[in-house]
What we know:
Elements (H helix, E strand, L loop, with lengths): L2 H13 L5 H9 L4 H12 L6 H19 L1 H13 L6 H4 L2 H40 L1
InterPro entries: TLC-dom (IPR006634), TLCD (IPR050846)
Pfam families: TRAM_LAG1_CLN8
Protein name: Protein FAM57A
Amino acid sequence: MSLSVTLPLLSLQFFRNELGDFFIGCLFTAELSTPFVSLGKILIQLGLQDSILHKVNGVIVLFTFFLCRILLFPYMYWVYGQHYGIPVYRVPFHLPLSCTLGNICVLAPQVYWFYMLCRKGIRLYQRERKMRETASN
């Protein structure tokens, strides 16, 4: 494990006082989309951006990114609410303010990046459609 991963993990273990194992584990699942994002970049560098593999990978990127980086937060809040017997809409007010603000700070860029990924997907789809239309004429 590299130092860039190990050091934050060790400091995280020290400062959290053995609290929040579930939330830490959930945040690690956010990285599930990373190999697919990287594969997309590799395929582009290899000139395979028009291949079926790149298209399938793009769908997987969108799915895993949305599931593991955006829906993750409502899921964590829902599980927390179930554990403490409170409705999900009250969870942000039950958590310490620093946790809620931290989650917002982590979620905001995820929503922006997902929006950008969707825009890129739409552009690629439209480009492909235009290429097919010009080829058929």
